[in-house]
Amino acid sequence: MNKPKYKRVVLKISGEALQSEKGYGIDLASISSISAQLIEVHKLGLEIAIVIGGGNIFRGEIAASEGMDRSTADYMGMLATVINGLALQDVLERDGVATRVQSAITMRSLTEPYIRRRAVRHLDKGRIVIFVCGTGNPYFTTDTAAALRAMEIGADAILKGTKVNGVYDSDPMKNKSAKMFKELKYIDVLNKNLKVMDATAITLCMDKKLPIIVFNLFKNGNLKKVITGAEIGTVVKG
Predict the structure, then answer these.
(1) Given this model, what pLDDT does residue 1 score?
(2) What span, in angstroms and rounded, lies between the C-alpha atoms of 100 and 118?
(3) Which of 9, 51, 73, 107 is within CB 3.0–4.6 Å of 60 for a Cys-Cys bond?
(4) Rounded to whole angstroms, how far apart are CA atoms 34 and 11?
(5) Is 190 exposed, middle or buried (0-12, 13-18, 19+ CB in 10 A)?
(6) Is the pLDDT of residue 21 over 80?
(7) Can you tell me the distance from the alpha carbon of 136 to that of 48, in angstroms, rounded to the nearest whole number?
C-alpha cells in the first residue's frame, strides 16, 4: 500500500466542479465520485480538510458586476458554499466517513462555527473537515480561504482539484495547443497572471512557502496519485 507523502492537506474544490450538466445546481454523481476518492486516501491515514466554493449556485462577483451591492452578493455566495458543503458531508457520511462542516459565519443549526483548535482536533481524530463560507468576509475568495485555513491548521500542501490536468499557458478548453506547466514558481504565477488561485492566495502561500498542486480531480485515482507523490498536475512552489 502506498504511503501518503503528506500528513495533512487542504483540498480546494470549486463549486463548478459539483454542478450538473445544465450548468448550475448540484450533480450528486460528481459528489459521489469525489467522495470515493476522498475515502480512498482517508484510508491511507491522510488528514483532509476541504474548502468548497459556491459558483454552481451563485457567483457574487457576477451579481456585483450587474449592479448588486458587492458585500451583499459575496455573502449570498458564502451561503451557496454551505449548501455544497452539506451535500458533500451527506455523501461522505453515507459512505461511512465521519465529517464536520465548519462555517466562518455562525449558523449553529446547520454547522459548527469555525474554531481553529476544534478543526485540528477533528483532523487528529480522523474526521474530514469541510470549511464553508470562505473567510467570512466579502471581497475575499474561497481560494484565499483555502490558503488561510491551510496555514491555520498546519497543512503540508494545498491541492486544487479542477476539471483540467494542471495549469496551462492558455485555456485548454479553447486552445488545443495550450501548453501545460509541470512546475511553476509563485512569482511566475503572479507575473503571468495565470489562473491558479487569486493573487492574495498565491501571495499568502509564497510568504509561507506552502506548495500548491493543481490537478484533475475527475480522473479516477488522481487524488491518490497526488498524495502519494506521483508527478501529475502542476506544482507551484519556490
Answers:
(1) 56
(2) 10
(3) 73
(4) 11
(5) middle
(6) no
(7) 21
Work out the percent of the chain whose per-residue pLDDT is above 70: 100
Instruction: Find how far residue 94's CA is from the centre of its chain.
Output: 21
Strands (E), the chain: 8-13, 47-52, 99-103, 112-113, 128-132, 157-162, 167-168, 180-181, 183-184, 212-216, 234-236
More confident of the two residues 119 and 29: 119
Asked if 236 and 214 touch (Cβ cutoff 8 Å), the reply is yes
- 232 pLDDT above the threshold of 90: yes
Query: What is the architecture, at CATH level 2, of domain 8-236?
Result: 3-Layer(aba) Sandwich (3.40)
Residue type, 18: L
Distance from CA of residue 17 to its chain's centroid?
10
Instruction: For 192-224, write each residue's pLDDT tens digit.
Output: 999 889 999 999 999 999 999 999 998 989 999
Please provide the size of the chain in residues: 238
Residue 185 backbone phi and psi in degrees, to 5: -95, 150
Do 9 and 46 form a contact (C-beta atoms < 8 A)? yes
Is the pTM higher than 0.90? The answer reads yes
